[in-house]
Amino acid sequence: MNKQSEKLAKAIAYEAKKKKERDEDKRPAFHVTPTTGWCNDPNGFSRFGEEYHLFYQYYPYENKWGPMHWGHCRTKDFIKWEELPCALAPDMEYDGQGCFSGTAVEHEGKHILMYTGVLDRVEADGSHTLRQTQCIAVGDGVNYEKLPANPVITADALPEGSSGEDFRDPRIWKEGNTFYAAVGSLGADGSGQIALFSSQDAEEWRFESILDANGKRYGKMWECPDFFPLDGKQVLIVSPQFMRAEGLEFHNGNNSIYFVGTYDREKRSFLRGEARSVDCGLDFYAPQTVETEDGRRVMVGWLQSWDNYMTPEDFLWSGMMTIPRELEIREGRLIQNPVRELENYRQKEVSCKGIRLSEQQGSLELDGIRGRVLDMIVEADVSRSASFTIHLAVGEGCETTISYEKEKGTLTTDRTCSGLKKDLLCTRSMYVDTKEGKLKLRLLLDKYTVELFVNDGEQAMTSLIYTPLEAEGISFSCKGETVLDITKYEIVLS
After folding, report:
1. What is the domain range of residue 399?
2. Handedness of CA 350, 355, 358, 361 (dihedral sign)
3. Dihedrals φ, ψ of 279, to 5°?
4. How many domains does the chain divide into?
5. 280, 287, 308, 289: which is closest to 430 by C-alpha?
6. Which residues contact 174 (CB under 8 A, 6 or more apart)?
7. What is the distance between the alpha carbons of residues 173 and 169, in angstroms, rounded to a whole number?
8. Disulfide engineering: 386 pairs with which of 68, 82, 189, 479, CB 3.0-4.6 Å?
9. For position 1, what pLDDT does the model report?
10. 126 secondary structure, DSSP code
11. Which residues, in sequence order, are bridge partners of residue 477?
């Protein structure tokens, strides 16, 4: 590999210094978190050799967004992650304003990263020309070298009228001996489209088709596309910007949606079905997937929101990834559950069966049911309940609630009292199916996160909480009567 650039060497030295200074107790136990500084979109989630690599949008010098680098970590089981040195820095003219999001693929023993380079050129008249292009870096799993041919795809290859300023987030994969890349852009109508390119060597690319187009229906720009086969269907995931709310299915701003459909390989066209939210929580964006060695499709997303920055000032980091989730298609819907490897880290099981909860009891605490790093399954018979609530991270005058309301048929996360110091969006609801009066909830807590999976993965709801870690209480309440079966595990990485 070539000698590191000055910018890359600086980033690597800085993160090594900060790693020695950081307070590990303030970091999640089993979620990927940046070595230091800021992170957003997952990048390059891929299998390379016998390990899985995950990169992420990264600015090491502050816990706020800045010129994008690529942070880097790897794992063998999706739970224990090894931090690696920063992989990419904005050190070339074509990516001087940032190495934006992209993906990765293994080829002939090399790890190929495809990312978006951002150039902001000041013209003679003082105006700015912003260009986003697609670039390649090749490496050995630790060190990466950008191709001399970069950028390998420019907006000149797009259909007439397409934007050169909004052209980003390539999703690269291989079929046989051919590389393909699906890239988000804005079409002539000003709304999102996914452009498909092909290559024989990952250096020279040609435009194939518009794989799918927004048609001004679902937001504006479609960011961070992922495109993959699953259970005999084809899935397209995109993260729209500026998407209007539609009932409870979608919410305002930036969110992630998926389509289950079919892929016409001859026409290079995706025939999509109904749009649905990937995650209905407050903090989820830009997911990526990888196919595991044993054939599973595993997804990870950014566990934070663009619209609700709430990182405490004294934190050296901001942003993290969700728990990796196994995907399947069931009745045309995307099902997601935490990777099975998490179960290897369960300890200290506490089981409470047939717990009768009534309105007269008020809030009920149970022996052994508390904590902030846990995996808990709650099966509730809510057939005689007007409402049912789980109170999490209780203490220090704080709590976060998960509440079912029978009349509305909704499940709501509410972090209003989680310890926030300013007004932010705090509630999100979704419709749920109680399965003949029964509701099954799986909750993962990792200090500052709540990930909720409903009815064996039919729905997911993910949110941040920066509640003081001393607040470990968990309690249950209802209106009417509820019968509970609860199993709780501590998650211990040793």
Report:
1. 343-491
2. negative
3. -140, 135
4. 2
5. 280
6. 105, 107, 180
7. 13
8. 479
9. 47
10. S
11. 389
Cα dihedral 453, 457, 458, 463 in deg (nearest 10): 30
Scanning the structure block, which residue is given the tokens 């149970």? 366
**Per-residue model confidence (pLDDT) at position 20:** 93
Residues assigned a catalytic role = 41
What are the C-alpha distances in Å from 369 to residues 357, 466, 490? 15, 20, 10
> How many whole angstroms separate alpha carbon 68 and alpha carbon 119?
12
Distance between CA 153 and CA 159 in Å, rounded? Answer: 13
- Tell the residue number behind the tokens 């909750």, with chain if given: 443
- Measured CA distances, 151 to 116, 134, 141, 147 (Å): 9, 6, 22, 8
Listed in order, strand segments (DSSP E) in 406-448 are 410-414, 427-431, 438-446
Strand partners, 207: 197
The conformation of residue 60, written as its DSSP 8-state character, comes to T
CA distance 340 to 83: 22
Domain contains 1: no
Residue type at 408 in one-letter notation: K
Do 363 and 477 lie in one domain? The reply is yes
Where is 13: in which H helix or E strand?
helix 6-21
Closest alpha carbon to 485 in 355, 334, 330: 355
Residues 65, 19, single domain; the answer is yes
CATH number, domain with residue 213: 2.115.10.20
The whole-angstrom separation of Cα 437 and Cα 431 is 14
- What pLDDT is recorded for position 2? 56
- Which among 287, 310, 276 has a CA at the least distance from the CA of 449? 310
Report strand pairing: 317-318 vs 37-48.
parallel
Max Cα distance, the chain (Å): 75
- Alpha-carbon distance values, 403 to 224, 268, 282, 382 (Å): 32, 44, 15, 12
Domain end: 309, 338, 367, which one? 338
Give the tokens for residue 193. 């489209």
pLDDT in tens, 153-207: 999 999 999 998 999 999 999 999 999 999 999 999 999 999 999 999 999 999 9
Q: Provide the whole-model pTM.
A: 0.96
Q: How far apart are CA 339 and CA 324, in angstroms?
A: 6
Kindly state whether residue 464 falls inside one of the protein's structural domains.
yes
Under 8 Å between Cβ of 330 and 230: no
Q: Which helix (H) or strand (E) holds 328?
A: strand 325-330
Torsion of CA 395, 401, 402, 403, to 10 degrees: 130
> What gap in Å lies between CA 480 and CA 357, rounded to an integer?
8
Whole-angstrom distance, CA of residue 98 vs CA of residue 66:
8
Residues in the chain, pLDDT under 70: 1-2, 252
